[in-house]
Amino acid sequence: MSKMDNLRAMREAKYAAAQKRSAEAPARPKAPVAPPVAPPVAQAAPPSAEAEPATGEELCGHRNMGGRTCTRERGHAAKSHRYS
Predict the structure, then answer these.
(1) 24-80 pLDDT tens trace
(2) 79 near 62, Cβ under 8 Å?
(3) C-beta separation of 61 from 74 below 8 A
(4) Is 60:79 a contact under the CB 8 Å cutoff?
(5) Is 82:71 a contact under the CB 8 Å cutoff?
(6) Which one, out of 23, 31, 58, 81, has a CA that is 20 to 30 A from the CA of 9?
(7) Please, is 12 exposed, middle or buried when counting C-beta atoms within 10 Å of its C-beta (0-12, 13-18, 19+)?
(8) How far apart are CA 62 and CA 70, in angstroms?
(9) Residue 48: helix, strand or coil by DSSP?
(10) Beta-carbon neighbour count of residue 71 at 10 Å?
């Protein structure tokens, strides 16, 4: 037997043992699934004057996965964002 034949035989033996275990295991009753309930929506506080930039322009505000925000103007035509 080659090494690959041995590996294949071991894999098939594991698969057969797993099938046997699952057939012998008692069936668990499925619990009724309740529909998810949305949490109550909290009213957002109005943005403070301190959070706004001093330039008077609104920023894009797009966030990347790292939590950084885009510093381009809102509705920019550029395809990419500039994060800071």
Answers:
(1) 877 777 777 777 787 777 676 665 545 545 556 788 888 888 888 888 888 888 888
(2) no
(3) yes
(4) no
(5) yes
(6) 23
(7) exposed
(8) 5
(9) coil
(10) 15
